[in-house]
Amino acid sequence: MSRPSSEGAGGGKPGAVKHGGSGGPAASAAISVAAAAAAASTGVSSLPGPGTSAAAPSFSLTVGGLQSPELTALFECPVCFDYVLPPILQCQAGHLVCNACRQKLSCCPTCRGPLSPSIRNLAMEKVASTLPFPCKFSSAGCLLSLHHSEKPEHEEVCEFRPYTCPCPGATCKWHGALEAVMPHLMHAHKSITTLQGEDIVFLATDINLPGAVDWVMMQSCFSHHFMLVLEKQEKYEGHQQFFAVVLLIGTRKQAENFAYRLELNGNRRRLTWEATPRSIHDGVSAAIMNSDCLVFDTSIAHLFADNGNLGINVTISMC
Ligand SMILES: [Zn+2]
Ligand SMILES: [Zn+2]
Ligand SMILES: [Zn+2]
Ligand SMILES: [Zn+2]
Asked: What is the CATH number of domain 10-28+162-318?
């Protein structure tokens, strides 16, 4: 077992970053869809003929000679170019705007007419339900088209969704490709200490610091980089807790090849947590929200702490 080296952050203090916010989820980058922008055809008046609503559940729907990309283009929001999906509401003159934009607007972006009272467009909703809509990240390479009800769920886990900066605290707004995450961390978060080896000690100093505090450090082993995060926060008011988790700088699939163990040990006591590392694609906040990590309260922390410093043994293995 190797002790933490003091390379990087001064005095072996593993880049304690204090943040004020309550650790809300890092806003995922809103990427507008450029996909179905091809040929936004005009003058669509033809209705589906009796033969077009064929029973085959194939998604190569054609209505009145229009291919589905042209049809989906009709659902583009004029403000954000994302799709207008059910419930579909229109202005009094019949213009559509997506529900997200609608909440920020006081009048119709097309005719400046009133947006309320809302008028529901059930016919467009029915058409939307027969169409496959491209994933939001199609411009990044995702080839999937899905029923609108399945889109949000897929986009949450889409492999082509840009990676956000894995540092907790959501103060860094960086996002980009997986390959760019490590260069970003080394460039923009130089204070984070890295330790080599599969068995290390993550030393969190000054755990009594008031307020929400994060301790972050990197561990390199098995040709991969892991981010170790300890967060102190009040998930429930008046009840301060510590949350410790290991994230892989990699995809969910890659994360499945590893297991990690966190262990507090000392004063004739031991507390252990074992799990699969989370991909940074999932982030820290989801782990904390679901308590899918090592969770302990301040009293337990004090049982293991030494002079206000808490050492967590971290072991990563391949499985
Ligand atoms: Zn919109
Ligand atoms: Zn309008
Ligand atoms: Zn996708
Ligand atoms: Zn960052």
From this structure: 2.60.210.10
**What ligand is nearest to the CA atom of residue 77?**
1
Report how far ligand 2's centroid is from the alpha carbon of 61 (Å): 28
From ligand 1's centre to the CA of 111, what distance in Å? 15
CA 1 – ligand 4 centroid, Å: 29
Phi, psi (deg, nearest 5) at residue 103? -70, -20
Q: Which CATH number fits domain 35-44+59-157: 3.90.1640.30, 2.40.30.110, 3.30.40.10, 3.30.70.890?
A: 3.30.40.10
Q: What is the pLDDT along the chain (319 residues), one digit of tens a residue?
A: 444 433 333 333 444 444 433 333 333 333 233 333 333 333 333 333 344 443 434 455 555 555 678 889 999 999 999 999 999 999 999 999 999 999 999 999 999 999 888 899 999 999 999 999 999 999 889 999 999 999 999 998 898 999 999 998 768 999 998 999 999 999 999 999 999 999 999 999 999 998 889 999 999 999 999 999 999 999 888 899 999 999 999 999 999 999 999 999 988 999 999 999 999 998 898 899 999 999 999 999 999 999 999 999 999 999 9
CB proximity list for 82: less than 8 A, separation 6 or greater: 32, 33, 76, 98, 100, 136
